[in-house]
Amino acid sequence: MLKSDSHAAVAGVDAVALKPSEHDLECIPDLEDAVETVVVDYEGREHLPEFDALTALAGDRTVRVTAPVRADGFDPLGDDSLADAIPPELGRVFVAGHSQGGMAAPRIADRHGGVAGIVSIDGPADPGMDADDLGFLRYSIEPDGDLTEEQEAELEAKRETFRRVADGDYDLDEEILGKPGRWHDSVDEVTTAETAAELDAAVFVAKAGRADPETQPEIAEMHEQHYEEWCEHDLGEDSTVEFYEDVDHYMQEGYDPSGMAALYFPGNAAEYVVTDVAEWVHDVADD
Fold first, then answer.
1. Would the keyword Hydrolase turn up in this protein's UniProt record (predicted)?
2. Does the CA dihedral 137-140-146-148 come out positive or negative?
Protein backbone atom coordinates (compact mmCIF):
# COMPACT_ATOMS: atom_id res chain seq x y z
CA MET A 1 0.00 0.00 0.00
CA LEU A 2 1.23 3.48 -0.79
CA LYS A 3 1.95 5.40 2.43
CA SER A 4 1.52 9.14 2.71
CA ASP A 5 5.02 9.51 4.17
CA SER A 6 6.64 7.15 1.67
CA HIS A 7 9.46 8.37 -0.57
CA ALA A 8 9.53 5.20 -2.65
CA ALA A 9 8.29 5.29 -6.21
CA VAL A 10 5.46 2.97 -7.19
CA ALA A 11 6.14 1.05 -10.39
CA GLY A 12 4.96 -2.01 -12.24
CA VAL A 13 1.27 -1.69 -11.39
CA ASP A 14 -1.66 -0.37 -13.41
CA ALA A 15 -3.61 1.15 -10.52
CA VAL A 16 -3.30 2.16 -6.89
CA ALA A 17 -6.08 2.57 -4.31
CA LEU A 18 -5.96 5.15 -1.53
CA LYS A 19 -8.05 5.89 1.56
CA PRO A 20 -8.01 9.60 2.53
CA SER A 21 -8.61 8.61 6.17
CA GLU A 22 -5.18 6.92 6.06
CA HIS A 23 -3.34 9.08 3.55
CA ASP A 24 -2.85 12.80 3.09
CA LEU A 25 -3.35 13.19 -0.65
CA GLU A 26 -1.26 16.35 -0.78
CA CYS A 27 1.71 14.55 0.79
CA ILE A 28 1.68 11.57 -1.53
CA PRO A 29 4.82 11.51 -3.70
CA ASP A 30 4.55 11.62 -7.46
CA LEU A 31 3.31 8.34 -8.86
CA GLU A 32 5.24 6.60 -11.59
CA ASP A 33 3.91 6.93 -15.11
CA ALA A 34 3.17 3.19 -15.03
CA VAL A 35 0.23 3.91 -12.74
CA GLU A 36 -2.58 4.84 -15.11
CA THR A 37 -5.48 4.82 -12.63
CA VAL A 38 -5.83 6.03 -9.05
CA VAL A 39 -8.87 4.97 -7.01
CA VAL A 40 -9.68 7.15 -4.00
CA ASP A 41 -12.03 5.48 -1.51
CA TYR A 42 -13.89 7.96 0.69
CA GLU A 43 -15.28 6.38 3.84
CA GLY A 44 -17.65 9.16 4.80
CA ARG A 45 -18.66 12.78 4.49
CA GLU A 46 -15.64 13.99 6.46
CA HIS A 47 -13.33 12.58 3.79
CA LEU A 48 -14.98 14.03 0.70
CA PRO A 49 -12.43 15.16 -1.90
CA GLU A 50 -11.02 18.59 -2.37
CA PHE A 51 -11.08 18.89 -6.11
CA ASP A 52 -7.74 20.72 -6.27
CA ALA A 53 -6.07 17.83 -4.44
CA LEU A 54 -7.54 15.34 -6.87
CA THR A 55 -6.45 17.44 -9.83
CA ALA A 56 -2.90 17.54 -8.54
CA LEU A 57 -2.95 13.80 -7.92
CA ALA A 58 -4.40 12.97 -11.31
CA GLY A 59 -2.08 14.66 -13.75
CA ASP A 60 -2.69 12.74 -16.95
CA ARG A 61 -4.07 9.75 -15.06
CA THR A 62 -7.61 8.62 -14.41
CA VAL A 63 -8.85 9.18 -10.87
CA ARG A 64 -11.87 7.17 -9.77
CA VAL A 65 -13.63 8.23 -6.57
CA THR A 66 -15.85 5.99 -4.43
CA ALA A 67 -18.01 7.24 -1.56
CA PRO A 68 -20.71 5.44 0.46
CA VAL A 69 -24.35 6.46 0.66
CA ARG A 70 -24.96 5.59 4.28
CA ALA A 71 -28.35 4.57 5.62
CA ASP A 72 -29.84 7.04 8.06
CA GLY A 73 -32.18 5.49 10.62
CA PHE A 74 -34.96 3.55 8.95
CA ASP A 75 -35.06 5.47 5.69
CA PRO A 76 -34.86 2.72 3.04
CA LEU A 77 -33.40 5.21 0.62
CA GLY A 78 -30.58 6.09 3.01
CA ASP A 79 -29.05 9.53 3.46
CA ASP A 80 -28.29 10.45 -0.13
CA SER A 81 -27.27 14.02 0.69
CA LEU A 82 -23.68 12.85 0.27
CA ALA A 83 -24.32 12.69 -3.48
CA ASP A 84 -25.06 16.42 -3.50
CA ALA A 85 -21.70 17.12 -1.86
CA ILE A 86 -19.65 15.44 -4.60
CA PRO A 87 -17.68 18.14 -6.44
CA PRO A 88 -19.42 19.00 -9.71
CA GLU A 89 -16.07 18.97 -11.50
CA LEU A 90 -15.86 15.20 -11.12
CA GLY A 91 -16.71 13.37 -14.30
CA ARG A 92 -19.17 10.53 -14.67
CA VAL A 93 -21.03 9.56 -11.50
CA PHE A 94 -22.35 6.04 -10.84
CA VAL A 95 -24.77 5.04 -8.08
CA ALA A 96 -24.36 1.44 -6.89
CA GLY A 97 -26.21 -0.52 -4.24
CA HIS A 98 -26.80 -4.05 -3.02
CA SER A 99 -30.21 -5.47 -2.07
CA GLN A 100 -32.16 -2.56 -0.56
CA GLY A 101 -29.36 -0.30 -1.76
CA GLY A 102 -29.96 -1.63 -5.26
CA MET A 103 -33.64 -0.95 -4.77
CA ALA A 104 -32.87 2.65 -3.79
CA ALA A 105 -30.16 3.36 -6.37
CA PRO A 106 -32.43 4.52 -9.25
CA ARG A 107 -34.31 6.90 -6.97
CA ILE A 108 -31.07 8.32 -5.60
CA ALA A 109 -29.81 8.72 -9.17
CA ASP A 110 -33.05 10.50 -10.07
CA ARG A 111 -32.66 12.89 -7.13
CA HIS A 112 -29.02 13.62 -7.91
CA GLY A 113 -29.41 14.02 -11.68
CA GLY A 114 -26.71 13.76 -14.30
CA VAL A 115 -25.77 10.21 -13.31
CA ALA A 116 -23.95 8.14 -15.94
CA GLY A 117 -24.91 4.74 -14.60
CA ILE A 118 -26.67 2.70 -11.94
CA VAL A 119 -25.54 -0.65 -10.53
CA SER A 120 -28.15 -2.77 -8.73
CA ILE A 121 -26.68 -5.86 -7.09
CA ASP A 122 -29.61 -8.23 -6.50
CA GLY A 123 -31.98 -5.35 -5.91
CA PRO A 124 -35.66 -6.02 -6.69
CA ALA A 125 -37.31 -4.61 -9.79
CA ASP A 126 -40.46 -4.11 -7.75
CA PRO A 127 -40.12 -4.25 -3.94
CA GLY A 128 -43.84 -4.88 -3.51
CA MET A 129 -44.85 -8.05 -1.67
CA ASP A 130 -47.37 -10.62 -2.94
CA ALA A 131 -49.13 -12.17 0.06
CA ASP A 132 -50.13 -15.18 -2.07
CA ASP A 133 -46.58 -15.93 -3.20
CA LEU A 134 -44.71 -16.83 -0.03
CA GLY A 135 -43.55 -20.35 -0.85
CA PHE A 136 -39.94 -19.33 -0.33
CA LEU A 137 -40.49 -18.75 3.39
CA ARG A 138 -40.26 -22.41 4.41
CA TYR A 139 -36.62 -22.46 3.30
CA SER A 140 -35.81 -19.70 5.76
CA ILE A 141 -36.49 -22.29 8.47
CA GLU A 142 -34.91 -25.39 6.91
CA PRO A 143 -32.77 -25.29 3.74
CA ASP A 144 -34.52 -28.34 2.30
CA GLY A 145 -38.00 -27.10 3.25
CA ASP A 146 -38.79 -30.31 5.18
CA LEU A 147 -40.43 -28.97 8.35
CA THR A 148 -41.59 -30.55 11.57
CA GLU A 149 -45.07 -29.88 12.91
CA GLU A 150 -43.66 -27.24 15.24
CA GLN A 151 -41.80 -25.61 12.36
CA GLU A 152 -44.96 -25.61 10.24
CA ALA A 153 -46.62 -23.56 12.98
CA GLU A 154 -43.65 -21.19 12.94
CA LEU A 155 -43.99 -20.93 9.16
CA GLU A 156 -47.67 -20.04 9.39
CA ALA A 157 -46.87 -17.30 11.91
CA LYS A 158 -44.31 -15.91 9.47
CA ARG A 159 -46.83 -16.05 6.64
CA GLU A 160 -49.32 -14.09 8.70
CA THR A 161 -46.72 -11.41 9.46
CA PHE A 162 -45.85 -11.10 5.78
CA ARG A 163 -49.54 -10.90 4.89
CA ARG A 164 -49.97 -8.02 7.34
CA VAL A 165 -47.11 -6.16 5.67
CA ALA A 166 -48.53 -6.81 2.20
CA ASP A 167 -51.95 -5.56 3.32
CA GLY A 168 -50.56 -2.54 5.18
CA ASP A 169 -52.07 -3.89 8.39
CA TYR A 170 -49.77 -2.19 10.90
CA ASP A 171 -49.26 1.05 12.79
CA LEU A 172 -46.63 3.47 11.55
CA ASP A 173 -44.62 3.15 14.76
CA GLU A 174 -45.13 -0.61 15.10
CA GLU A 175 -42.03 -2.74 14.53
CA ILE A 176 -42.81 -5.52 12.10
CA LEU A 177 -40.26 -7.70 10.29
CA GLY A 178 -37.58 -5.76 12.12
CA LYS A 179 -38.63 -2.36 10.76
CA PRO A 180 -41.22 0.26 11.80
CA GLY A 181 -44.43 0.48 9.81
CA ARG A 182 -43.47 3.82 8.24
CA TRP A 183 -40.43 2.08 6.71
CA HIS A 184 -42.68 -0.43 4.96
CA ASP A 185 -44.90 2.41 3.80
CA SER A 186 -41.94 4.16 2.21
CA VAL A 187 -40.85 0.96 0.44
CA ASP A 188 -44.30 0.71 -1.14
CA GLU A 189 -43.63 4.05 -2.83
CA VAL A 190 -40.48 2.80 -4.56
CA THR A 191 -40.70 1.77 -8.22
CA THR A 192 -37.15 0.60 -8.81
CA ALA A 193 -37.08 -0.71 -12.39
CA GLU A 194 -39.71 1.76 -13.60
CA THR A 195 -37.66 4.67 -12.29
CA ALA A 196 -34.46 3.23 -13.78
CA ALA A 197 -36.11 2.94 -17.19
CA GLU A 198 -37.16 6.60 -17.13
CA LEU A 199 -33.64 7.90 -16.46
CA ASP A 200 -31.08 8.88 -19.06
CA ALA A 201 -28.55 6.52 -17.51
CA ALA A 202 -27.19 3.06 -18.22
CA VAL A 203 -28.12 0.31 -15.75
CA PHE A 204 -26.27 -2.85 -14.71
CA VAL A 205 -28.42 -5.36 -12.85
CA ALA A 206 -26.89 -8.46 -11.29
CA LYS A 207 -29.46 -11.02 -10.17
CA ALA A 208 -28.54 -13.99 -7.99
CA GLY A 209 -29.92 -17.41 -8.85
CA ARG A 210 -28.26 -19.94 -6.58
CA ALA A 211 -30.75 -22.58 -5.45
CA ASP A 212 -31.25 -26.32 -5.77
CA PRO A 213 -34.24 -26.66 -8.13
CA GLU A 214 -35.02 -30.13 -6.78
CA THR A 215 -35.06 -29.32 -3.06
CA GLN A 216 -35.83 -25.59 -3.31
CA PRO A 217 -38.12 -25.25 -6.36
CA GLU A 218 -39.93 -22.16 -5.04
CA ILE A 219 -36.66 -20.32 -4.51
CA ALA A 220 -35.35 -21.28 -7.95
CA GLU A 221 -38.62 -20.07 -9.48
CA MET A 222 -38.50 -16.86 -7.45
CA HIS A 223 -34.96 -16.08 -8.67
CA GLU A 224 -35.99 -16.54 -12.30
CA GLN A 225 -39.10 -14.42 -11.78
CA HIS A 226 -37.08 -11.59 -10.24
CA TYR A 227 -34.67 -11.70 -13.18
CA GLU A 228 -37.51 -11.65 -15.72
CA GLU A 229 -39.15 -8.68 -13.97
CA TRP A 230 -36.06 -6.61 -14.67
CA CYS A 231 -35.89 -7.86 -18.27
CA GLU A 232 -39.43 -6.64 -18.92
CA HIS A 233 -38.33 -3.01 -18.58
CA ASP A 234 -36.84 -1.00 -21.41
CA LEU A 235 -33.67 0.19 -19.72
CA GLY A 236 -31.37 2.77 -21.27
CA GLU A 237 -28.61 2.33 -23.81
CA ASP A 238 -25.65 0.20 -22.64
CA SER A 239 -27.84 -1.37 -19.94
CA THR A 240 -27.65 -5.06 -19.11
CA VAL A 241 -29.41 -7.51 -16.80
CA GLU A 242 -27.26 -10.48 -15.82
CA PHE A 243 -28.39 -13.69 -14.14
CA TYR A 244 -25.75 -15.44 -12.03
CA GLU A 245 -27.16 -18.87 -11.27
CA ASP A 246 -24.24 -20.02 -9.09
CA VAL A 247 -24.19 -17.19 -6.53
CA ASP A 248 -26.42 -16.25 -3.60
CA HIS A 249 -27.78 -12.88 -2.50
CA TYR A 250 -24.28 -11.75 -1.52
CA MET A 251 -22.92 -12.84 -4.92
CA GLN A 252 -21.05 -15.70 -3.25
CA GLU A 253 -20.62 -19.20 -4.55
CA GLY A 254 -21.31 -22.10 -2.18
CA TYR A 255 -23.02 -25.38 -1.56
CA ASP A 256 -26.66 -26.18 -2.26
CA PRO A 257 -29.16 -26.21 -0.80
CA SER A 258 -28.22 -22.84 0.66
CA GLY A 259 -29.94 -21.44 3.73
CA MET A 260 -30.33 -18.18 5.58
CA ALA A 261 -27.31 -18.98 7.76
CA ALA A 262 -25.03 -18.32 4.79
CA LEU A 263 -26.11 -14.68 4.83
CA TYR A 264 -24.68 -14.24 8.33
CA PHE A 265 -21.22 -15.53 7.37
CA PRO A 266 -20.39 -13.55 4.25
CA GLY A 267 -17.18 -14.02 2.34
CA ASN A 268 -15.93 -12.61 -0.92
CA ALA A 269 -18.17 -11.95 -3.88
CA ALA A 270 -17.44 -14.13 -6.90
CA GLU A 271 -14.55 -12.63 -8.82
CA TYR A 272 -16.31 -12.91 -12.18
CA VAL A 273 -19.24 -10.83 -10.89
CA VAL A 274 -16.90 -8.11 -9.64
CA THR A 275 -15.07 -8.20 -12.97
CA ASP A 276 -18.31 -7.88 -14.95
CA VAL A 277 -19.40 -4.86 -12.91
CA ALA A 278 -15.99 -3.18 -13.10
CA GLU A 279 -15.65 -3.68 -16.85
CA TRP A 280 -19.16 -2.36 -17.43
CA VAL A 281 -18.52 0.75 -15.34
CA HIS A 282 -15.28 1.41 -17.21
CA ASP A 283 -16.94 0.92 -20.60
CA VAL A 284 -19.81 3.28 -19.78
CA ALA A 285 -17.48 5.85 -18.22
CA ASP A 286 -15.24 5.82 -21.28
CA ASP A 287 -18.07 6.23 -23.82
1. yes
2. negative
The SS3 of residue 232 is: coil
Domain residue spans in the chain? 1-68, 91-286
pLDDT tens track for 89-109: 666 788 888 998 899 899 888
Q: What is the pTM of this model?
A: 0.78
Contact 15, 36 (CB under 8 A): yes
pLDDT digits (tens, 9 = 90+) for 39-58: 666 555 555 666 676 666 66
Position 91, amino acid: G
As its CATH architecture, domain 91-286 has 3-Layer(aba) Sandwich (3.40)
DSSP letters for 243-276: EETT--TTS----SS--GGGGGS--PPPHHHHHH
For residue 167, which phi and psi values (nearest 5 degrees)?
-90, -5
Give the torsion through C-alpha atoms of 286, 271, 57, 79, to 10 deg: 90
